[in-house]
Structures
1.
Amino acid sequence: MFILFGSKQTKKELALGRELLCPRCNNVRRWPVMQYTTWFSVFFIPVIPIKNQYFEMCPICKAGKKLTRQQAQRWHA
Ligand SMILES: [Zn+2]
C-alpha cells in the first residue's frame, strides 16, 4: 500500500495584539499575534501538530518578532 507522508504549515491570527513602533518600517501599528503550526500530514491532510511557533508581525512590512507560548497566550483570551 502506498502512503504519502509530509508536513504542512498553517497560520492563524490569535489576536490583534498591541501597538508597536516597527524598527524596520518605522510605522506605528497594532501587530497581530500569529500562530504558525507545523503539522504531520498524511495524503496532504494535517493529522498531528508537531510544533507551534508564535510571532508578533508588523502588518506593513511583515517584520516578525518571536514570542514564547506564554507571551502569545496572554493575547489569546
Ligand atoms: Zn514594519
Note: Residues 22, 24-25, 27, 58, 60-61, 63 surround zinc ion (CB under 6 Å).
2.
Amino acid sequence: MRAVIVGAGISGLSVAFRLQQLVPQAQITILESDSRPGGTAWTLREDGFTLEIGPNGFLDSKAFTLQLAKEVGLESRLQAASEAASKNRFLFHRNKLQVLPSGLASLLFSPLLSWRGKLSLFLERFRGKNPLPDGRDSDGEIDESIDAFTRRHTSSEFAEVFADALVTGIFAGDPKRLSLRSCFPRLAELERTHGSVLKGLAQAAKERRQQAKERGERPRRGSQLWSVRDGLRTLVETLSEQLRNPPVFGVGVRRIEKTESEWFVLGDGAKTWPADVVVLTCPAHRQAAMVGDLDQSLADEIAAIPYNRVVVVGLGYRQQDLSRPLDGFGYIASQSTRRDLLGAQWCSSIFPNRAPPGAALIRALAGGWQRPEIADWDDEELLQAARVELRQTMGIAAAPIYQRIIRWPRAIPQYHVGHLARLQHIERHLEKQPGLYLGGNAYRGVALNDCTEQGMLLARRIADECVRRKQ
Ligand SMILES: Cc1cc2nc3c(=O)[nH]c(=O)nc-3n(C[C@H](O)[C@H](O)[C@H](O)COP(=O)(O)OP(=O)(O)OC[C@H]3O[C@@H](n4cnc5c(N)ncnc54)[C@H](O)[C@@H]3O)c2cc1C
C-alpha cells in the first residue's frame, strides 16, 4: 500500500507513526510545505529562553500524546507541570487577578460568583432538561451553543464568568457560537447519561477513586499538564525521526487527482506522487483547495470551517523586575471583557527550565474570535499593548529583556453550532472517494490529544480498509 499524507503537523505525524506500526509493509510519504515538522507545535530556543510558539503542553486526561511520547522513547525526558501551576490558575476579573476555583468546594468560597450564582450551580442537577434549539443536525439532534447549555444548566452569571473563561483558554472563541457537542462532547454525554453534568462528574470521580484504590494507588485530583523537557519541538522531531521515510519538506501540495485505479498528489513543482491512500491533515482551507476539482460541494463545506487569529507574544523579564511571584499557571481575561490580551501563561513557572537563571518567561496571547483586528497590529503596537496589560494585571513596569511575536492568521478552528451537521455532509461526500481520508484539527478536536487520538483512529481505519480490499 502506498500512502501519501499531506502535512507534518502532530496530526500527520501521528497518522504516519501509527500506520507504520499497523501496516509495516506500507510505503508512507509525508509531504510538508514548511522546512520543519510540527506545524503549530514548535519551540524556539533563543537567548536562553525556551518559547513554545503554539501549544504549551498536553494533558493526561486522555493519555494519547503521553503514550505516543513514551513509545518514541521520550519517557525519561517528559516533564510534568510544576505543582504551583497545577494548583493556581487565575482569572482577571473586576480589575484583579483572582484564583480560579479547582473544584466545587473552593467554588463555594470563591469571590468570583455571587451567592445566587453559587446556588444556581447546586441546583444544576435539577435543571436543564429542555435544550434551547440553537440548531439541529440531520438526525434531528440539538446542536446547542456552549453559552446556551451553560445558562440552561446554571445561570447567566456562571456562563458569563466561567464558560467564557473556559472557552477563552481553549478555543479563544465565542461561547455563543461554539457548539457544546463538538467542543466538549463529554459534557453533552454526561448530560445524556446522568441528566446533570455535576452528577456525572461526581460519579466519574467516585469511579476513579475506586479504581485507584483497587490498584493500590493514591487517587489524583484532575489532570496533569505535560511537556518534554526542552519543549514540544523534541516530540515532533523525535516522531519524525522514528518514521521509516522522513517527511519530504518544502512541498506545498496543490491538488489531488484520481484515476480508475490510483490517486495522484500534485506538488507545487512538477512532481507528482502516486498513491493508493491519501490523507490530508493540513488546515481546512488548504484541504478545500486540494479537493475542489473532485467535489466542489465537499470543498465548500471544508472551506466553511472558520478559524480565529491569534498572536503569541513571548516576553522575558529579569526576576528582580517582577512585582509579584509567578506562582501559578497564569491568567485568563475573558473575551467578553474585550481586553487587548486574552491572558498570559507564566511559562517558567509551569516548566521551570524555560528561562535562564535569574529570569522569567511569560507568554501573552492576543486576538481570538472577538478581537481579530489585533493580529493586524504592527509589532511595536502589540508589544506596547502587552506591556500596558501586564502592568495593569501583574504590576510589571520594567521593560522585557527578551521579546518575540508569533502571528497565527489561522490559529484554531472554531466548531460553531452546525459543525456536526457539516461533518455528516463531509462524511457522505467522502464515501464517494474511496482511498481519500481527512484528518487534522479542523474536524474532531483541537487539543494535541485529540490530534494524536484521531491520528490513531484514522490509521486503524486505513489499515482495516486495506485488509478488506485484499479479501
Ligand atoms: C497559539 C496556540 C496555542 C495552542 N495551545 C495548545 C495547548 O496548550 N495544548 C493543546 O493541546 N493544543 C493547543 N493548541 C492546538 C494545537 O496546537 C493544534 O490543534 C495542533 O497542533 C494542530 O495540529 P495539526 O497537525 O492538525 O495541524 P497543524 O499544526 O496546522 O499542521 C498542519 C501542517 O500542514 C502543513 N501544510 C499546510 N499546507 C500544506 C500544503 N499545501 N502542502 C503540504 N503541507 C501543508 C503545515 O505547514 C503544517 O505543518 C494551540 C494552538 C495554537 C495556535
Note: The longest helix spans residues 448-470.
3.
Amino acid sequence: MEDPIVEIYAGIGSDAPFYALVEAFYREVEEDSVLRSLYPDDLEPGKRHLVWFLIQRCGGPSHYGTERGHPKLRVRHMPFRIGAEESDAWVRHMLAALEVTPEFGPYQASLSRYFEESAAFLINKSEIPTI
Ligand code: HEM
C-alpha cells in the first residue's frame, strides 16, 4: 500500500476517537515541563487544529484545509524551537495517547512510524555545536 495512513479514517469511521486521541495527548503535554512552555496558555484552538489535521491526514473530512489552508507543518512549527528532546517528548506523548485510545489499535504501527518521521522532520534547532 502506498500510504496506509489515508485509509485510517474509513477504518475507524467517526471523528470521536480522533478527539479522544488529541485529548489524551494534550493531557500529557500539560504535565510536560519541556513541552508545556512551547504551547500557548489557551490550549483549545491548538487541540482543534490538531484534530482536524489528523482527521484530514487519515483520509477523513477536510475541515483542516477549509479552516487553516495548506498544513505547511514545517513553516507553522518554525516559531517553536524544536530539538531532539522536544521531538522525542512529543512522540512519546502521542504514542502514549495511541495506547489509551483503543480504536487506533490496528493502526498503531503505521501511525507510530508516521509520527516518528514527521516529528523528526520538524526539528528546527541544530544541536551541532559551532566552533
Ligand atoms: C516535533 C515535536 C513537535 C512540537 C514541539 C510541536 C509543537 C507544536 C506547537 C507548540 C503548536 C502550536 C499550538 C497552538 O497554537 O496552540 C503546534 C501546532 C500544530 N502541530 Fe505540532 N509539534 C510537534 C510535532 C508535530 C507533529 C509530528 C505533527 C503532525 C504529525 C504536528 C501537528 C501540528 C498541527 C496540525 C498543529 C496546528 C497547526 C495550525 O496552526 O494549523 N506537530 N505544534
Note: The chain is about 60% helix and 0% strand.
